[in-house]
């Protein structure tokens, strides 16, 4: 493999990684906005909470010891958004 081909592959990989990061940070917001009204099924609510808690942990670098705080804050955020829908 020549250098030009290798550089193109690396650049393509970085572009795909950037797109994936952008999509994952938008996903919880879009999921919440799609909810029409009410709490919805408990499994869907729990999935939304888990996703929001994950992104909270990611934002703080996954430092251990604050998992419960992440979950409780995510739960309050999801419930607040679902009640507005």
UniProtKB/TrEMBL annotation:
Record region (Disordered): 1-45
InterPro entries for this protein: DUF2934
Any single Pfam family the record assigns to this protein: DUF2934
Basic and acidic residues bias: start-end ranges: 1-12, 20-45
Name this protein carries in UniProt: Fatty acid hydroxylase
Organism: Sulfurifustis variabilis
Organism taxonomic ancestry: Bacteria, Pseudomonadati, Pseudomonadota, Gammaproteobacteria, Acidiferrobacterales
